[in-house]
Amino acid sequence: MRYLVSVIDDKSDPGSTDRRPAISAFNERLIAEGYWVFSGGLADTDAATVVDNRGEQAVFSDGPFVESKEYLAGVWVWEAPDLDVALKLAAEASKVCDRKIEVRPFL
Amino acid sequence: MSDVEEAVTRAHQGEWARVVAALTRRFGDLDIAEEAAAEAFATAVERWPADGTPPNPGAWLTTTANRKAIDRIRRENKRDDKHKEAQMTYDGPPEPVGAIDDDRLRLIFTCCHPALAMQTRVALTLRMVGGLTVPEIARAFLVAETALERRITRAKAKIKAARIPYRVPSAEDLPARVSGVLAVLYLVFNEGYLATGPDTDPLRHDLTAEAIRLTRLIRALMPGDGEVAGLLALMLLTDARRTARISAGGELVPLDEQDRGAWDTGLIAEGHGLVRERLAAAAAGVAPGRYQILAAINAVHTSARDIRDTDWSQVLALYDQLARLDPSPIIALNRSIAVAELDGPRVALAAVDRLEDELAGYHAYHATRADLLRRQGHSRQSRAAYDRAIELAGNTAETAYLTRRRDQLR
């Protein structure tokens, strides 16, 4: 079962910025234990572009599709047998990243 | 009620959760299990009056429900992808946690999973484990049936899509998960004990009885768990006072004014027995949790034949123990009532006033202040506090009581 694991940061109350070494170590463990499928941190939401080509011509808009205080700062994809396993790892991930984590199953 | 009707009711109370749980394990799908169980019971209502009650109603219901489930899967042509559909994990031979291995426990833990919202857990538990119908649950919690139906449907979909496992949690997760289950049952009980709706009965015996029934079930499944025993004792000792809590005029009767002769001695004896069992465990070094301490406080109250015989110093000692475990303002507020008995209303009021920031929106905070001010002869301030408490109280019997107390002030 695959889960999209989102790291959520808050613009008005951001998590600490020194988490990289801890995240690397945590990733090593995810890989060793067979949970890791993919991971990546994301550039600031200002760097996002939204494309809408449902009409006559493609419209490009600067910035994210939704402006909010909380935003997606990074993602993982994990392979886990069930939600309990994923939630336990997510609880660790939240400490490691010093941020909130959302766990969402793939279809 | 005819014999057959009684047999169906008994079977429903005794077997519903067992049937749903067994089907969930077999078909890996709460939806199929719930629907097939409901159909099996409907068939029983139709058939038993004519054919007589089967010698083993539980087995009859399980077999019938199994057939109904298979029919449905065939109908929907799910034979081939049934296993793909079945998202609930069932880990082959179950790992027994201690000596417990029961489908119903798996069902309870799934319905009370921490990934589900509290109200969802309550609705799902009452439906899947308690066997209450959607209209019954909707009435109990004053929500629209359609909204509740949606909530339950969404929950079942989440359990499936996110793969919430169908199993008893591992030993290391068990205490946290049990406390999640107990929180659900306590919430159901409290809603019955002090119903919040302005248009409902002040006491909802259907809800308190259901909460007690489900807690008894968990107690039977987990006899070694101290907090389960504590919660059951707390419910029994509270429910024992039921008939004395509401006056003939529909007013809430506080503990100090209750007719103690009207208390249910059978429930009190059972509750005291459970508390004694946990005291023995505590003496052997097992630290009691909050439900056990709350039960012990209620045991002190129900041991006194007269309010004047109440051992307030023991009540206070227990509240101190509870406050160390859970430093919540509500516990501090209840503790102040014992303080008032031991050190007088002035000392207690000083303690209560310190809670204003946290409890300004809670009716019991203002009701407690009103009473402590009244006892010191501060009528004007007491009246203002009663006014605020009446504004915030949701329970009809409590509003009636507070209004009378306010109107007695000079």
UniProtKB/TrEMBL annotation, chain A:
Cross-referenced Pfam families: YCII (PF03795)
| Family statement drawn from the similarity comment of this UniProt entry | Belongs to the YciI family.
Q: Which residues form the YCII-related domain?
A: 1-102
Name recorded for this polypeptide:
YCII-related domain-containing protein
Source domain of life is Bacteria
Entries under InterPro entries matching the protein: Dimeric_a/b-barrel, YCII
User: Known PANTHER family for this protein?
Assistant: BLL7171 PROTEIN (PTHR35174:SF3), BLL7171 PROTEIN-RELATED (PTHR35174)
Automatic annotation (TrEMBL), chain B:
**InterPro entries, alphabetically?**
DUF6596 (IPR046531), RNA_pol_sigma70_r2 (IPR007627), RNA_pol_sigma70_r4_t2 (IPR013249), RNA_pol_sigma_r2 (IPR013325), RNA_pol_sigma_r3/r4-like (IPR013324), TPR-like_helical_dom_sf (IPR011990), WH-like_DNA-bd_sf (IPR036388)
Biological-process GO terms, alphabetical: DNA-templated transcription initiation
Q: Which residues form the RNA polymerase sigma factor 70 region 4 type domain?
A: 108-159
The DUF6596 domain is annotated at 177-277
Question: Which GO-annotated molecular functions does the record name?
Answer: DNA binding; sigma factor activity
Keyword flag Transport: no
Under the heading Gene3D superfamilies, the entry gives: 1.10.1740.10, Winged helix-like DNA-binding domain superfamily/Winged helix DNA-binding domain
Q: Where is the RNA polymerase sigma-70 region domain?
A: 18-78
Q: Which UniProt keywords apply?
A: Sigma factor, Transcription, Transcription regulation
Concerning its family, UniProt says: Belongs to the sigma-70 factor family. ECF subfamily.
Task: Specify the protein name.
Answer: RNA polymerase sigma-70 factor (ECF subfamily)
Say which species the protein is native to: Sphaerisporangium krabiense
